[in-house]
Structure formats: C-alpha cells, structure tokens
Amino acid sequence: MGRLVVVSNRVPAPRDRQQPAGGLAVALRDALSEGQCLWFGWSGQQISEHEKAERDVSIDHVENVTYATIDLTHAEFDGFYQKYSNAILWPLCHYRAGLMEYNRKDREVYLDVNELFARKLLPLLKPDDLIWIHDYHLFPLGQALRDLGVTSPIGFFLHIPFPPWSLMKALPGGTKLMQNMQAYDVIGLQTEDDARNMNDGFSICGVKARAQVFPIGIDPESFAEQAKAGEDLAEVQRLGESLAGKPLIIGVDRLDYSKGLPERLKGYETFLQRYPEHRGKVVYLQIAPVSRGDVEEYRLLKQGLDEAVGRINGSYGDFDWTPVRYLTHPVPRHLLAGFYRLANVALVTPLRDGMNLVAKEYVAAQDPEDPGVLVLSHFAGAAPEMEDALLVNPHDADEIAEALHKALIMPQAERKARWALLQPDVWRVTAGSWARDFIGTLAKVKRA
Q1: How far apart are CA 37 and CA 32, in angstroms?
Q2: Nucleus as a keyword (predicted)?
Q3: DSSP 3-state of 311
Q4: For residues 27 and 436, is the Cβ–Cβ distance under 8 A?
Q5: Can you tell me the distance from the alpha carbon of 220 to that of 177, in angstroms, rounded to the nearest whole number?
Q6: Which of 171, 219, 264, 332 is the 20 to 30 Å CA partner of 436?
Q7: What does each C-alpha distance from 173 to 115, 180, 211, 217, 350 come to in angstroms?
Q8: What confidence tier does 1 reach under pLDDT thresholds 50, 70, 90?
Q9: What global pTM score does this model have?
C-alpha cells in the first residue's frame, strides 16, 4: 500500500502533533502510525488579502507524518468556513434547513477554497498515494483534484449526518455537488440511514450509488484505563466529595443546536416536577463548551441555556443544593474520563448526530461491577449499536424524565446486565477498526 494522504479542513496544531488531544487526530492515530503519511489542510491562521499571493505551504515533519498547511484570508475564512460550511451545510445536514443562510457569493468562495486546496496539494502528491478526504467542508475537493489530473484512489468520509434528498434539494447547486462526488472511489458514512439517504440522492442525480457504512469508534482500552486512573485525580475526588453521596447525571456536548440541549434541560426540569422524591438528592452536571460564539444563532442558543439553567436552579434549588451545575468551558479529556466513571447516569440526547462518541466513552469508562446507565437519543448515530441503553426521543420531555427516574432507581443487577450487552460493541467497533476498514477498502480500488 502507498502513502496515506489525509486531507481535512483543520490540521492538528503543532502542540497537538506529538500527543493527539481529540477529534480526528485521535481517530486516525493508529492509521497514521504505519508508514509515511501526509496530512494536509488549513493552518488555522488568517492572513490579509494582500498576503494572499505570497502564501506558501508550510511543512512540518513529526516522526513519520508530514504536516502540510496553508493559511486562509479573512474573506476565505468567512465565506468558506463560517458561512457556507457552518451556516449552510451544517444545519442542512442536521435536518435544520430553515436555519440555512444562503448567499451565492459564499458558495463561490467555498468552491474557490476547495480548488485552492487541490492546487496546493497537487505538488505534494506521489503516484501511489491513497488520498482520504474528510468532512463537509471538502465535498468538492475530489473533483477539483480529478480536474487537475490526479488519478490516485480518493476516498471521502462524512463525519456528520446526511439528509434525505427531500431536504438536500433545498441547497442551491445541490445536484451539482452530488454529481461532483462521483470523483470519489469510496465514500463512507456513519450509519445505514445516512448511506441510504446519500445513495438515494445519487440515484436521483444520475450518479452510481457508492456510499458505504463505516461506523467510527473510540480506543476503548486506553479510555477505560484513563477513566480508572482518573479516580485518583484530585479534581475527580473533589467532584465526588462535592456530591455528598448524591448520584450524578452528566452531559458533555459542544454547545450546538444539534445537541438538543434546550430540550434536555426541559426534560430534566420535567423530571424534577414529576418525581419530587429526587429533589435535593441528585446533581446534574452539564459541560457545554462554547463553539462559534461569534455566530448569532449560537449566541442566542447560549442565552437560552443560561436562562433555562437559571430558571431551574431558581425554582428548585435550595440553600444547600443546586440542581444544575453548568460549565461552558472545555474540560481536559483525562478529567472527563474520570467524571464519566463517577457519574451514575450519562444524558446523551442529540436531535441529530453523526455518531456521538460520548455515549461510547461513557460505556468504556464504567466500573463493570457498578456501572452507570446511559440515556441515549434515538437520533444519535450510535443508537442502532446501543439498543440496551435507555433510548429516548429528545423532543419528548416526559420520556427523558421517565428515563432519568428509571436510571436512578435501576437495580445494580440490571445496570450490570445492560452494560454487559453494551460493552462488546464498544470494544468491537473502534477508531482503529474504522480506519483500517476504510483504508483497506480504498486500497482494493488501487489493486483493481
């Protein structure tokens, strides 16, 4: 097999290249450890328009991986990343077409940046490379590379959901985008529903159906070890002491409208209304780091969550009890692992998610002899693999309330039985198996 070339919107920052801290870098850790690899993408830096003509690809070598990055101008960042990728494609793919803010100029910038990526990547490629492009920012990149004469196998993986054609056709130029994706030899998505939606769209647009399912996972062994070691961390012990014996419900999500956070808080509030026996006897910790805080939709979301937390704590709290503990800053991964192990219940209720690895991390972090309970949305990509969680409709506050009550009173024997059924799938489908399966399928294209 030739060299693996990974292309993504963002490349890990220099400080994260020795020890991957999260996201795609952690998922690709095993794949990048074998042979020579190239990772190409945006540097995260913005430059002025007059510097545009002079920008070069920056190269950094870390062990067997070459990191190649380019800067974007302020206008490119705004049109490509902020607007077209995250104000059009992101809501559309999460079934929120009404939130799209379409402007043809932004689409042109999006296409221009994909062509820029192709031009800057081209001189770095070798004939026997396997090229793996990631996520919605780079839908058209495969075709841009083909237009420049690249004949290497090119794969594409979408980490977020893909909507049915009835929604996708709301995107101006959506048919052309689908047709351009025939440049890819292998296309991977997280779930059967997402692959079916994309293949239906291909059929309507006159493209051969080629989307396949490659579910992503975590590294469960290392995360389980991290969680067990986390029991001895001072911060985890402080959290445990602060609970004073009360059970802990935990939620961990990037602050985004796809995560169902307002609906989750409504469910928790309904839980306190319907089951007064739990008042003063349970703590809900919601960690929701702010993302895209300069976007109006996200500012309004945070404002609404702030008000909901204040209302719940004001209505139900007491001088010695705060019903909701609410953090909007990131918590390091090693601490989260310890927090998951401590938590009696994980509340994972997205309105729509590609996979949602928090659910898998929570299962991996549990003590097999005294595991907690996972409450999971039907609309998380992980749900079909995790049917022994307490599955809920995140739009139904009463259903969330009932699941929380059931989780908190569940006997230990049932908790252990449910965990024992969830555990094998978390260990079977891992980040390593996901990467191996996809790369192996792409490599067969080359041999053919």
Answers
A1: 6
A2: no
A3: helix
A4: no
A5: 36
A6: 332
A7: 17, 11, 20, 33, 28
A8: low
A9: 0.94
- Give the residue among 323, 347, 380 at the shortest CA–CA distance from 261: 347
Q: Are residues 181 and 246 in the same domain?
A: no
Catalytic residue among 134, 159, 253, 425: 159
Domain match, 231 and 350 both: yes
Q: Are strands 345-348 and 130-134 parallel, antiparallel or unpaired?
A: unpaired
Examine the domain organization and report whether 102 and 240 are in the same domain.
Answer: no
Is 112 among the residues known to form the active site?
A: no
DSSP 8-state class, residue 9: E
SS3 61: strand
50 alpha-carbon distance from chain centroid:
35
Query: Are 256 and 367 contained in the same domain?
Result: yes
pLDDT in tens, 325-338: 999 999 999 999 99
DSSP E strands in 74-205: the ranges are 130-134, 154-157, 186-189
Choice among 129, 253, 256, 353 that is catalytic: 353
> Which of 66, 58, 71 lies closest to 125, judged by CA?
66
Active site residue 353: yes
Amino acid identity for residue 214 in this structure: F
Count of the separate structural domains present in the chain? 2
Token duo for residue 225: 């070890």
Mark whether 123 and 186 lie in a shared domain: yes
Residue ranges making up the domain that contains 404: 220-428
State whether 206 and 351 are in the same domain. Answer: no
